[in-house]
């Protein structure tokens, strides 16, 4: 039983240890890069959203037409 | 081995199932933009009310899946009742089955690949058929009509949903086969998620609810509330309304967005060098989010499937207390609500449902839900990274073919190093991403932050593949490239 | 002393066989992409990339058909409204 418990806790701790080691080795984006990415993706996402929402709005008059 | 193969069953279907011609020669960049745009446009148009459900009362369908919908681009009471769920389910199912060698398929043979594809396509249409039957027979659509559906209406609804899935499959195939950009599923998903986000934030539609007229968009609602109500209650009611998106969801989504964008740029850089040509050493990034959004997508695919069948079964056997206590029970918590909430059973513990039975059950729910999300994502990412043709072995093969070696490693050690880095990256990435997702859901995200997470990671992936295509075609219109190319 | 029945030699043979088997299984591809034919990558789901011998359709035809499908649903709506059918 004790052995089983040990194994049960061993897997997550091992996983967390390896994970943190890996993250520490990772290159992280600096502030400039991060801001650039977030702006590019944010603008892209919002633009897509607006276009998509525009398409959705087409439905409203059609719905009124058929109700 | 066994002489019977599931794949061979697909042979007779091969000639009936519509199949998009593969493009001869490379499509032009502009053509691709048009095809992708039109496909996405059609996908959004498909969010049209089903015939048989009263259009005016389409919104009154009590929705048990509202917290799963944004992630799959599905919308209740419309042709996209299941969105991309059938396609994703069949894709994950068969790819994992093939990857774990449960399905006997030889991917080196062209004929087998074609059969595998037919199998995927047929399964997604079939699944959509099954789902719609499950919902129709469990009385999901009845609440919009008031009484049980007649048989013809029921058949009509099933036919419409199934046909829609067939068309969506074809749209996906069209994009996949090189008429559009990169991946069909992810493109459609991204556009659906983005427009859903816009709809939930700045949606100007006004709908009649039990509390009077309300705006759909959370920000619009806040503005309106500030104008019409005393300040305190205005802000509170825009934060905690449940029938439409609220401000709480909005700011959780923004926070999640910021964190995921930060994580998406974590990478482990291997220094590579060409063995053939004398050149500068370059860095080859291995991303922390090695599997992108797919682990999250897979986890919620499982949840959505469980909930569809859980709902159908719990409705069919509503009197059975065993089903209620062990599987699931759906209830409406307040008369003004347009959602069904999970109140008990296994599925309750696998959901971020806002119901408080007791402190203990809430505590248990939090733990079990997070545990489920995290472990499913991690185990999926582990399998997927080794199965999807991006494993260490595959990568080192490509390196060898292109005459690339990693600086500081002997040729024989490259595979070993890659085999160590890639699983670690994919598992860690999936673990962190799923942790964020679990948190955002437990704080009351109701699917919106998850969907945005999936949307932006898929969007980034698509963007990257567009960029690399751009560069390969020699079109170095760098002014455009710099704006849209954050990752290089 | 060796604890393996048959001694070291069998053990070595067994090792060799296991290794060979592993190598073999590592060689057969597990997905369309690892067979070198496009398809899903680690982050990208590309499901339908192969040419099957089926009912070949032009992509434009698919788009037109899809729009046609939406129109037919709209028309069904109008018929349902006029005749009061389908809405029980």
TrEMBL record, chain A:
Keywords: Endoplasmic reticulum, Membrane, Protein transport, Translocation, Transmembrane, Transmembrane helix, Transport. The chain crosses the membrane at residues 37-55. GO terms for biological process: post-translational protein targeting to membrane, translocation; SRP-dependent cotranslational protein targeting to membrane, translocation. Signal peptide: none annotated. GO terms for molecular function: protein-transporting ATPase activity; structural molecule activity. Its main location: endoplasmic reticulum. GO terms for cellular component: nuclear inner membrane; Sec61 translocon complex; Ssh1 translocon complex. It comes from the Eukaryota. It holds the Pfam family SecE. InterPro entries: Prot_translocase_SecE_dom_sf, Translocase_Sec61-g, Translocase_SecE/Sec61-g. It is found in: Endoplasmic reticulum membrane. HAMAP family: SecE. Belongs to the SecE/SEC61-gamma family. This is Protein translocase SEC61 complex gamma subunit, archaeal and eukaryotic.
Automatic annotation (TrEMBL), chain B:
GO terms for molecular function: signal sequence binding. Keywords: Membrane, Transmembrane, Transmembrane helix. The chain crosses the membrane at residues 33-56, 82-103, 124-141, 153-172, 179-199, 250-268, 288-313, 421-440, 446-463. Residues 41-77 form the Translocon Sec61/SecY plug domain. GO terms for biological process: protein transport; SRP-dependent cotranslational protein targeting to membrane. It comes from the Eukaryota. InterPro entries: SecY/SEC61-alpha, SecY_dom_sf, Translocon_Sec61/SecY_plug_dom. It holds the Pfam family Plug_translocon. GO terms for cellular component: Ssh1 translocon complex. Belongs to the SecY/SEC61-alpha family. PANTHER family: SECY/SEC61-ALPHA FAMILY MEMBER. This is Translocon Sec61/SecY plug domain-containing protein.
UniProtKB/TrEMBL annotation, chain C:
Its main location: endoplasmic reticulum. Necessary for protein translocation in the endoplasmic reticulum. It is a single-pass membrane protein. It comes from Pachysolen tannophilus NRRL Y-2460. Residues 30-40 have a biased composition (Low complexity). Keywords: Endoplasmic reticulum, Membrane, Protein transport, Translocation, Transmembrane, Transmembrane helix, Transport. Signal peptide: none annotated. This is Protein transport protein Sec61 subunit beta. It comes from the Eukaryota. The lineage of its organism: Eukaryota, Fungi, Dikarya, Ascomycota, Saccharomycotina. Residues 1-40 are annotated as: Disordered.
């Amino acid at each position: 039983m004790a052995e089983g418990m040990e194994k049960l806790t061993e897997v997550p701790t091992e996983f967390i240890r390896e994970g943190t080691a890996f993250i520490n080795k990772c290159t992280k984006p600096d502030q400039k890069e991060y801001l650039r990415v977030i702006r590019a993706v944010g603008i892209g996402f919002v633009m897509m959203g607006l276009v998509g929402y525009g398409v959705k709005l087409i439905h409203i008059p059609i719905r009124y037409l058929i109700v | 081995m066994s002489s019977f193969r599931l794949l061979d069953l697909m042979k007779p279907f091969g000639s009936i199932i519509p199949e998009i011609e593969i493009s001869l020669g490379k499509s032009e960049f502009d053509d691709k933009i048009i095809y992708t745009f039109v496909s996405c446009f059609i996908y959004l148009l498909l969010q049209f009310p089903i015939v048989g459900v009263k259009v005016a009362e389409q919104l009154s369908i009590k929705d048990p899946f509202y917290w799963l919908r944004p992630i799959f681009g599905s919308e209740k009471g419309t042709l996209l009742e299941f969105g991309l769920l059938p396609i994703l389910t069949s894709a994950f199912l068969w790819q994992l089955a093939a990857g774990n060698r449960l399905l006997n398929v030889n991917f080196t043979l062209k004929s087998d690949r074609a059969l595998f594809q037919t199998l995927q396509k047929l399964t997604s249409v079939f699944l959509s058929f099954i789902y719609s039957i499950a919902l129709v027979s469990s009385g999901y659509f009845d609440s919009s009509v008031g009484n049980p559906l007649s048989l013809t209406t029921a058949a009509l609804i099933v036919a419409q949903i199934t046909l829609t899935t067939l068309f969506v499959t074809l749209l996906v195939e069209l994009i996949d086969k090189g008429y559009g950009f990169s991946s069909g599923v992810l493109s459609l998903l991204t556009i659906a998620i983005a427009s859903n986000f816009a709809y939930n934030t700045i949606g100007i539609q006004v709908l009649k609810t039990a509390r009077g007229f309300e705006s759909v968009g959370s920000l619009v609602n806040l503005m309106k509330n500030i104008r019409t109500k005393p300040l305190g209650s205005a802000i509170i009611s825009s934060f905690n309304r449940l029938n439409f998106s609220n401000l709480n969801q909005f700011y959780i989504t923004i926070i999640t967005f910021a964190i995921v964008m930060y994580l998406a740029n974590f990478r482990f850089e291997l220094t590579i060098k060409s063995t053939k040509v004398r050149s500068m050493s370059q860095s080859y990034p291995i991303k922390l989010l090695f599997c992108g959004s797919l682990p999250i997508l897979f986890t919620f695919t499982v949840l959505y499937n469980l909930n569809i069948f859980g709902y159908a079964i719990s409705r069919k056997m509503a009197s059975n207390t065993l089903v209620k206590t062990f599987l699931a029970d759906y209830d409406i918590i307040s008369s003004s609500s347009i959602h069904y909430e999970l109140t008990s059973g296994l599925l309750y513990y696998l959901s971020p449902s806002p119901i408080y039975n007791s402190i203990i059950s809430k505590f248990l729910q939090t733990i079990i839900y997070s545990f489920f999300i995290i472990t499913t994502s991690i185990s999926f990412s582990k399998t997927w990274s080794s199965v999807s043709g991006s494993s260490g072995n595959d990568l080192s093969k490509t390196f060898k073919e292109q005459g690339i070696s990693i600086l500081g490693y002997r040729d024989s050690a490259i595979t070993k190093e890659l085999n160590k880095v890639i699983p670690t990256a994919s598992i860690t990435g999936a673990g962190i991403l799923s942790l964020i997702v679990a948190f955002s859901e437990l704080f009351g995200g109701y699917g919106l932050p998850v969907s945005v997470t999936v949307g932006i990671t898929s969007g980034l992936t698509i963007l990257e593949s567009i960029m690399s295509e751009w560069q390969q075609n020699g079109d170095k219109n760098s002014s455009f490239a710099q704006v849209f190319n954050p990752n290089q | 002393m060796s604890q393996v029945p048959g001694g070291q030699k069998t053990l070595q043979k067994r090792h060799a066989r296991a290794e060979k088997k592993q190598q073999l299984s590592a060689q057969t591809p597990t997905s369309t992409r690892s067979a070198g034919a496009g398809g899903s990558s680690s982050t990208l789901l590309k499901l339908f990339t192969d040419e099957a011998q089926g009912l070949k359709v032009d992509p434009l035809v698919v788009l037109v058909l899809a729009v046609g499908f939406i129109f037919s649903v709209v028309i069904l709506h109008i018929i349902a409204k006029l005749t009061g059918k389908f809405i029980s």
